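thought: fold this chain, then report.
action: predict
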Amino acid sequence: MLFVNVSIFDVLKKCVFVGFAYFCISKISPKQVFKPINKIKMNTPKRYTITAALPYTNGPVHIGHLAGVYVPADIYTRYLRLKGEDVVFVCGSDEHGVPITIKAKKEGITPQQVVDKYHEIIKTSFADFGISFDNYSRTSAEIHHKTASDFFTKLYNDGEFIEEVTEQLYDAEANQYLADRFVVGTCPKCGNEESYGDQCESCGTSHNATDLINPKSSITGNVPSLKETKHWFLPLDKHEAFLKEWILEGHKNDWKPNVLGQVKSWIDDGLRPRAVTRDLDWGIPVPVEGADGKVLYVWFDAPIGYISATKEWASENNKNWEDYWKKDDTKLVHFIGKDNIVFHCIIFPAMLKAHGDYVMPENVPANEFLNLEGNKLSTSKNWAVWLHEYLADFPEKQDVLRYALTATAPETKDNDFTWKDFQARNNNELVAIFGNFINRVVVLTNKYYNGIVPETSNLTEVDEEVLAQLKEFPNVISRSIERYRFREASQELLNLARLGNKYLADEEPWKVIKQDEERVKTIMNVALQIAAGLSVLCEPFLPFTAKKLKGILNVDANLSWNDVSEKEVLLSANHQINKAELLFAKIEDNEIQAQLDKLQATKTANEQANKKVEPQKETIEFDDFTKLDMRVGTILEAIKVPKTKKLLQLKVDVGMDVRTIVSGIAESFKPEDIIGQQVTVLCNLAPRKLRGVESQGMILMTDTPDGKLAFIEPSEKITNGGQVS
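observation:
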């Protein structure tokens, strides 16, 4: 080894000289040299910026949204806070775009009224389920309009956009260019006649509105014409090499495979310029002279909503928002669903790169889709479990749903939520394992020691092993959370409760108390330490339960994640705990059946709504109609026809006489419920024998949306025999 007698100052001087020479030779700025974009992954970031996908405000949120985005984001954020990290968690309502204008037109209200209504519903639902945003904002806010406008202007002034005049579909009667969702026509790939201008929902193919065969305006039904219009485009192809290196190479080992797969597919297909403006009267006006009647495309302005939400929070909390978006020691994480991967992994990063001042996301742990009872969740078909409705049916059971959704989360592939699994997760895991352990510990402590934590004596090898395992659980759960494996983390949490149950079952304090009271004191002390550990470690997953459990144990509210690993004692001897309360309640079969019945009713209603109306029958003359003798009658008697499922034998007073009529309505009505019911009877129909009974007429019926039958009856009481004409 060669030793050279030089000082550290000499080395530093040489480094400075080399650096200066590099600036001169390369003709680039020090900022570009010393501020590479996300080249180095941070092991110890100084702060965290956590974003959750902005929910679109044309309807409420359902369990798919919760499972895919908001519960995972909340778990991660709560965990970081418990670790003592500097973190801001932001979200907000996405309030621009065509679907909102469509909904407004359908309901006969303004777009602002639409977003105001659903913003409040969504915000309340998140609060009810404990989603702990530091700020939940909205893109209609003034601060967002300014932030998005400034962002656009910066890119515009830097020459980052392409300006193009293109032909777009135009509805002359409506006097407006047609956004993709305002155009319907035949899909060029599968032939679906109701394809939208941007995507066919039958085969899933993306296309342009001009690709449709026989396009029509959904506003007027007219055939649109092509008309020239000017727009600005973000040239994604310009950033293709950067995105490929940054994601496919730089993050190949730490991003989820489902995310990498979708990004690779997009990049391999070749990135193309994408419009950032559109012709619409709802949105943020394009801040360029001569851009009247144009707004920022919703996909462009929506992710900037994360920045404006952070600005809003910072101004209210005496913080510098730029620390959370522009400093290299900030870790930015986007929680999104499957359908937003392209926007957060390709488009928004390209926008941030073009701008130049912002950090890049460290991870985008997107989830796949959650199905419901084997079918895709659909807001339009009402095939969903809406959060506000869930709480009406299962009050104070937010944590049960949070847990069930976490345990079945679609982390790398689509998954299915079923009500039976929900019930099993509650009854067999939360009640039987977690709740059972806590209840035994608290009840026994109150029974033996009046709720005072007993002192330990000699710890056995088993005691020491259990306490050592307790101290390791924060690290075990941390490893899962920091790899965004929240399903795995939730099961590790449950394993801690299992450890507690096993310890009590093995040590049997209820038996030992008769022979060795000192030993029981140690057993109960150890069990209480586990309970206290659970009260801290469960908070990211079960925040309402954590609060309740800390109240029962009278534990320090400031007890941190690291305390569980580092402190020798979490509950000191002589500490007073409170009386036992059930953390979880069993969910009965009838409660689950009610949910299944609700879904079945939805399915039936959808089938009826999609049912094709029977074509008109052959034309008849008026004289043919006059031959029909239809009269109002009243049902006097009703009995089931033996050995049949559908037939009822009725006695009906039709004014002229009382008739026996056999009708196939038994599956829709109970005999006792229809006595006194007024009906419309075709009286001059030739008699016909049905199951040995002569039927002397026909009762007129129609189908209901739920697949049942309904009577054709007068709107008010009519004298029997009144003719229908």
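thought: worth noting. DSSP finds 22 helices and 26 strands in the chain.
final: tokens above.
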